[in-house]
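Lab meeting, item 3. Inverse folding demo.
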C-alpha cells in the first residue's frame, strides 16, 4: 500500500510493449542496419590506418627525429661570412639555432655566448668525471679526455670555459659538449662553397693517413652531412703555440719539430695549407702546465694544424716547384713577402708565386713571434715560478742556432728558404747535438749562471 502511494520512492512506469508496424519485422530491421554498420566500421579502420596506433606505456617511445635539410633563410645563407660585416655580426647564432635540435639528436649540446643579462652565456661545466688523457691525442677513444685540463687559480674544479680559445672568432665554429660531456668544436661547411676544405680534411683523416705518426692534422670525431651543410666535429684544443711557455729547451724543439713534421706530411701528400698562423696551430692543453716541473714531452703535449679553408691540393708525386698560386691568402701577420696584400694593384694580384715556401715562411714567423711574446711576458711578470733562469734564456745563450734557423725560414727571397724537409732535418740535428744538461732541465730548474744575464729572474 505504501509502495503504491509513493512512500518508498517514486514508482517506475511500466515499459510499454513496442508494437511493430504492419509489414515490418525484427529480421528486416537487422538487415537494414547492416550496411550502415559496415560502412562505419570501414571508416574507422581507414582512420586507424591513417593515424598510427599510440604505443602503450610499457613500450619504449621511438626517438624523436629532426629533419635538418630545410634551407636556411636567404639572409643567413652565407653563414661563414656573417661575422665579417657589422650589419650581420648579430646574426651569427641564428644558423646554429636552426640546427640545434638536429645536433642535439646526434648527442651534441651547443654552448652559447652572449653579453646581455637576459640571455646569459653557457656556464662552465663542473668536471663530474675525470677522464684519463688520450694516449694517442690524434686518435682519442671513448671515455678519454681530449686535452690536459690544467686550469689556473681558483678554476681547478671547473672544466674548459666555452668563451676561451679560437672558437669565439668565427661564425661557423661552435663549441659543444658531446654525449660523454667532453668539449668538442663543430665547424659548419657548405657542401659546394667549402667542398675543397671538406675533401682535404677528410683525406687527411682517412684511416691510412691517420695511422701515420707524422700526421699532425686535427682529428675528426664525427662528420654529419645534410643536403646543404657538413658538420665537422673535432676535439677542442684551446691553446695556441704562442700562449704556452716552455720550461726546458727540449720543449722548444718539440713544438718546432712537430710543426715541421706536420708540414712535411702535408707537402708530401700534395697539400699546401696557405694559412699557417698562431691561431691555426694548437696544443692539446687547456692552460699552461702547472709549475715548472712538467715538460711537454712528459705530458705528451701534441701540436695540430686546423683550418684548411685556404688550402689547395695537388697530385701526389708532382713537382713542388710547379705548385703556384696567385692573390692574397692567409693571415697578414704571417704572410710571406711575395704574397700580395689585399690592397695591392691587380697586376700584383695576378703574379704567380711558389706555394711551399709560403708555408715555410709562416712557420718561421709563428715561432719567432712566440719567442717575442714570451720575452714580453717574462719581462713584465717575471719568469715562471719565480725561477732565476728561464728556458728561453738558456735557449738564447746556449743554442743560437735555433733562432738562426727561424731567420732562414723567413728569408725575403723564397729560393733561399729551406724546404720543410731540410728545416726538419736541421732542427733534429741541432737538438741531438745539444748536451743533455742543456736539453733537459734538472729537477730544480736551470742554474742561474746559465742565463743570458737579462736582469734578475727576467727573460
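The presenter then showed the designed sequence:
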Amino acid at each position: 500500500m505504501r509502495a503504491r502511494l509513493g512512500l518508498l520512492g517514486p514508482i517506475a512506469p511500466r515499459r510499454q510493449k513496442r508494437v511493430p508496424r504492419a509489414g515490418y519485422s525484427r529480421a528486416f530491421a537487422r538487415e537494414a542496419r547492416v550496411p550502415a554498420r559496415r560502412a562505419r566500421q570501414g571508416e574507422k579502420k581507414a582512420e586507424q590506418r591513417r593515424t598510427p596506433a599510440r604505443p602503450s606505456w610499457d613500450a619504449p617511445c621511438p626517438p624523436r627525429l629532426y629533419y635538418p635539410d630545410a634551407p636556411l633563410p636567404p639572409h643567413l645563407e652565407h653563414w661563414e661570412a656573417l661575422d665579417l660585416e657589422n650589419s650581420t655580426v648579430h646574426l651569427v647564432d641564428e644558423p646554429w639555432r636552426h640546427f640545434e635540435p638536429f645536433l642535439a639528436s646526434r648527442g651534441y649540446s651547443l654552448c652559447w655566448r652572449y653579453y646581455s643579462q637576459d640571455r646569459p652565456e653557457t656556464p662552465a661545466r663542473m668536471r663530474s668525471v675525470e677522464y684519463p688523457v688520450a694516449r694517442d691525442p690524434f686518435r682519442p677513444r671513448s671515455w678519454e679526455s681530449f686535452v690536459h685540463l690544467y686550469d689556473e687559480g681558483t678554476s681547478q674544479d671547473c672544466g674548459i670555459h666555452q668563451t676561451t680559445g679560437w672558437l669565439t672568432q668565427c661564425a661557423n665554429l661552435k663549441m659543444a659538449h658531446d654525449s660523454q660531456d667532453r668539449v668538442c668544436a663543430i665547424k659548419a661547411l657548405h657542401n659546394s662553397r667549402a667542398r675543397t676544405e671538406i675533401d682535404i680534411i677528410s683525406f687527411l683523416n682517412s684511416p691510412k693517413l691517420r695511422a701515420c705518426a707524422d700526421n699532425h692534422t686535427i682529428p675528426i670525431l664525427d662528420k654529419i652531412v645534410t643536403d646543404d651543410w657538413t658538420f665537422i666535429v673535432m676535439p677542442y684544443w684551446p691553446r695556441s703555440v704562442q700562449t704556452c711557455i716552455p720550461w726546458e729547451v727540449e720543449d722548444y724543439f718539440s713544438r718546432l719539430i712537430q710543426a715541421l713534421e706536420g708540414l712535411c706530411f702535408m707537402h708530401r701528400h700534395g697539400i699546401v695549407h696557405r694559412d699557417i698562423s698562431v691561431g691555426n696551430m694548437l696544443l692539446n692543453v687547456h692552460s699552461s702546465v702547472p709549475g715548472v716541473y712538467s715538460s711537454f714531452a712528459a705530458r705528451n703535449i701534441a701540436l695540430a694544424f686546423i683550418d684548411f679553408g685556404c688550402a689547395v691540393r695537388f697530385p701526389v708525386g708532382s713537382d713542388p716547384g710547379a705548385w703556384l698560386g696567385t692573390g692574397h691568402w692567409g693571415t697578414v701577420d704571417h704572410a710571406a713577402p711575395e704574397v700580395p696584400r689585399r690592397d695591392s694593384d691587380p697586376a700584383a694580384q695576378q703574379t704567380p708565386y711558389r706555394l711551399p715556401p709560403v708555408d715555410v715562411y709562416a712557420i718561421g714567423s709563428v715561432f719567432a713571434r712566440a719567442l717575442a711574446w714570451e720575452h714580453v711576458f717574462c719581462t713584465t711578470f717575471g719568469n715562471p715560478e719565480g725561477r732565476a733562469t728561464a728556458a728561453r734564456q738558456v735557449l738564447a745563450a746556449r743554442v743560437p742556432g735555433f733562432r738562426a734557423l727561424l731567420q732562414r725560414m723567413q728569408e725575403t727571397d723564397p729560393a733561399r728558404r729551406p724546404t720543410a724537409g731540410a728545416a726538419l732535418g736541421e732542427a733534429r740535428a741541432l737538438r741531438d747535438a745539444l748536451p743533455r744538461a742543456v736539453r733537459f732541465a734538472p729537477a730544480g730548474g736551470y742554474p742561474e749562471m746559465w742565463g743570458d744575464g737579462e736582469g734578475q729572474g727576467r727573460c
